[in-house]
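note to self: dont lose this again. the chain is below, predicted strucutre after it. 102 aa total, dont forget to put it in the shared folder this time
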Amino acid sequence: TKMILLQIISESETNDQQSLLTNALLKQLIRFYGGDMQLFVRQYLEQSMASFLDQQDAVQGVMKNMMDANPMNMLSKMMQGNMGVWPPTNSTSQKPTPDDKA
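---
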């Protein structure tokens, strides 16, 4: 199975414009083979890929919810959020208080 997967990667990497693994990345990976850090790097890469896929799923879920939502409701919520940032304004001018003279 591993040989088949490596063959698929090898064939996919022949097109430089669509390559996922750069020469620099491959050189760095090769340096870890047989070293003390090989197991650590393997675990790190597996966990990083799992984390990346989880984040990708989360972003896709948010985007789907946004696309499924009513655009007017989304705009209304955004406007309400923006209005909450601004302090309320009064049409009458405020008179200074004795504390303001300090």
